[in-house]
Structures are given as C-alpha cells and as structure tokens.
Amino acid sequence: MSTTDGGPWWKSAVIYQVYPRSFADSDGDGIGDIDGIRSRLGHLRDLGIDAIWMSPWYPSPMADAGYDVADFRDIDPVFGTLAGAEALIEEAHRVGIRMIVDIVPNHISSEHPWFKAALASPAAKERDYFWFRPGRGENGDEMPTDWRGEFGGTTWTRTPDGMWYLHLFTPEQPDLNWDHPDVRAEFESILRFWFDRGVDGIRIDSAALLFKDGDLPEVREGEPHPFHDLDEVHDVYRAWRRVSDSYDGDRALIGEVWMPEVERFAKYLRPDELHAAFNFDFLGCAWDPALMRQCVDRTLDAHRAVGAPATWVLSNHDVTRHVTRYGREDTTFSFENNLDGVPVDLELGTRRARAAALLSLSLPGATYIYQGEELGLWENENIPPSSYQDPMWARRGHSRDGCRVPLPWSGDEPPFGFSAAQPWLPQPAEWKDLTVQAQTGDPTSMLELYREAIRLRRDEPGLHRPSFGWLDVHPQVLAFCRGAHFACVVNMSGAPITLPDHETSLLASGPLDGDRLPPDTAVWLRLQ
Ligand code: GLC
Q: What amino acid positions are annotated as catalytic residues?
C-alpha cells in the first residue's frame, strides 16, 4: 500500500466513503451490510481508491442511522458481526485498500449502558458522564437554555426525576461530558480497540462540538459560543494524536469540522493534533470561477500555515448530491438554505459533476468520494415523506435520505442488484442507465471517467508534487498547473475557450471541440 509521492498515505489519498446501509445487501433484508461490501470490494479495487471511510456500523437503535452508538466495540446485527468486520479489514488490506472507521465522540445512544445507568439512578457515577441540569422557572419545567439543536429544535429533554439532559442532536443522542476523565479514557480505549484491529484511520464525527461552557450562557452574537469550538477540545485531539502516533504504519485522524473561520479550522490541524479535516468550504462553494478560486486559495493558505494536507470533498451522506446541486441555478450548499424542490437540470449537473471530478482529483491533497458519486447519482427528490427515516426531517423540514439511496449495481429495474428485497429507500427507475454494469466499459460514462482519472493520478508525476500555481487563461476559467508539465483547466464561462499551449490532452470530462474546451468541461493537459 505505497503512496505515489512517498509521503504518508493520508496526505494524498483518494478516500471513498462507504455508507454501509446503502452499499450492498448480502442477506436480503433490503439494508446493506458488511458481507455485501466484501462481495463488492472488486468494484473499489477497480476504481483505484486508496482507502475506505466506513460510516458507523456499530450496534445502534438507528435513531440517526447509526450515529447513535450503543456499543463502540461491536457491530450491529443488521450489518453483520465483529468477525465479519475484521475479515473486511483484512481483505481490504490484501487488495491495497486502507480502512478508516467513524467514531462519534460528542454523544452516544440513549440505549448505551452508560446512559441507561445514568437514568436509572441520580446517584450513579454515570450521571456525570452527561449534562444533567435542573430546569429554569419555579417548577424547573423550563429548559436550562434556549440553545437550538444542530438539526433544529430544542436541545434538552426532561427525565422522570425532573432533571433535564442535553442533546445537541436528537433526544436519543445524549451529549457526553468531556470534562470527565472517564469519558476521555473510554474514547482513547475505543481508538486502541480499532487500531489494534488494523484500521488505518479514524473519522471523528462532529469534532468541534465536544466541550460546553458549564455556565450554560445563551448563544449571543459577538460572544464566545457555548458549545462550538471551545479551546479545550484541542487537548483531546493532542491526546488522541499520542495514541495514533504510538501505532506503526501512519494511522490518521480525520475530523469533521464545520467551521467558517479558516484560522480556527486550521488549529485542529496543528502538527500535534488531527492529520486532516473535511473541507466543507469547497463542498458548499458555488460553481463560479471567482468563488472557487478564492476557496482553493483560502484552503491552500490555511493548510500551508499548519503544514497539513488540504482535502477536497464534493458530497457526503449529509448533503445534497452535487449532480443535483450543480444542476440548479443556485449551486451553493448550506443546511440553512434548503433548496429542496428547486428545479434541477440533471444534464447540466452531470456535465459539471464530471468537470468537478477532474478538478477535485487534481488539486493538491487528499480527495474524498462519496459512494455513488463515481456513478453520477443524483439526489432522489421523489422519496415519499412517509418513507423518510432521517431525524432531521421532523426538525428542519429537510431530509438527508435523498443522498442515502442504495447503489444501483446491475439490471434494468430496482433493486438493481443491491439486494434481493426492496431496498430501505426507493431507487429511481432511471438509474438503470447508471448501474456499475451499464457504465463499465463505456468510455463516456462517469464510472470510466473516475477510473481513468484515479489511474492517471497515480501515474502522473505532476500530481504527486505539492506544487500548485494558477495559470492565466481566461477570467472565467479555473486553470492551474502542478509542476511544469501538468495542468488542469475547467471552463466555467458560458462559452467555449481556446486551450492553452500543451503537448497532449490526457483526459477530458467531455468531448473537446478541436483545441477548444466547451463550457462546464474540464481537461487534464500535459504541458510542453
Ligand atoms: C455528523 C454526521 C451526521 C450525524 C451527526 C450526528 O454530522 O455526519 O450524519 O447525523 O454528525 O452524529
């Protein structure tokens, strides 16, 4: 499992997110599982990825699709067994793919033994592992704060003994008290549990939320936020870094850090903290040359300052798929600006998504691919609300289920080889043209574009160097070189442009018109 530039793998890897419920189902219950993933590892090997990031697979009541963990040291029966997980880690390693597991430190499931013990008795030591507080008002029947939850809605639930507990997400996800040494010790032990099983990295869920201001002030403009990005969190990641550094083989810590202020974001990536963090600035950026260019500059500057690799993320299991985003008039993404139901031009979105694939795979750093992105899947906006499972739906009127629909593998109709049964979320009939089977061998398909781009990324020396420089081609064109002999050009102007001087065109996201690059098309060039 060597890397192209000789540096640690996580600096330049192509990392593929597997959402286990929706990857492949081996036992016919309509929900994906570990044996399904094992049976389809060949797809990931052929795609050429370096690592898998596995969304949570632990025992869970699934109040938030597994991000409500009841036991971090086992596997939910719906996904398989711990032995199956160990076999997958080994089989992935055998085909040169590293494994990253998802750890959720901010909260656990209300079914976790700790929370059950805390609820059972106010005297239990586990009470202090959470945020139990008396209510306000004469009878204590008003919540301790008016904090809004991360999914919208309130953040406190009252227990039968009259106390309230804090949950920044759903009531089934009580927040842990990171001021308590037992909580810290437990998570370090969980990290070791998975590192001992050979995993190569940890994705850290909601990484900036762990600490809360114990005085419980309200959220006020211009004042320090009571639960976002408190300074104490850095001590935890320093301790985690000591754990990961104590293992051989470059184990990596990758944070989910949603943070508009770049300087604060970069603090998580100081040399003794996390190795990398997801770049949501890029994910949310509009398909606009000036804004994209600023975003790339901001990203590279912030990471350079702390010596960390940039990451490039277009989609994940929480956000509207980018084929859909890029096919709308407003191409930005944010949870606050819900564009559900806004008209989409899927043909345009697909063309831009193809160009975005070449962009994100040629910028310096690591690139993340969310499962199905390599097939050009779009958001399924036609799921009947009665089938929604996402707890965000009830709180915010937006469901993330549209990007979590099971993958189409083969055949002409649902379930497209995903399962022998009806999948847990409906697949669009039009995906018959987007199955792995239908796209394999078709040089114009999204899948073959990804395969070829990842292959070239390995072979092209320019893409192994950290060097990066903008090229002046046209004000509405994003063009940059990597070293003296490689360039990527993305035409975001509405009209064809003439390509800069080059020796050969290595790969284009759509047909070129002689020496002209059509709009919403990208090309990789070898320069003279
Ligand atoms: C992260 C996950 C998301 C989950 C939330 C709460 O943002 O990506 O899916 O709902 O944390 O754990």
A: 205, 256
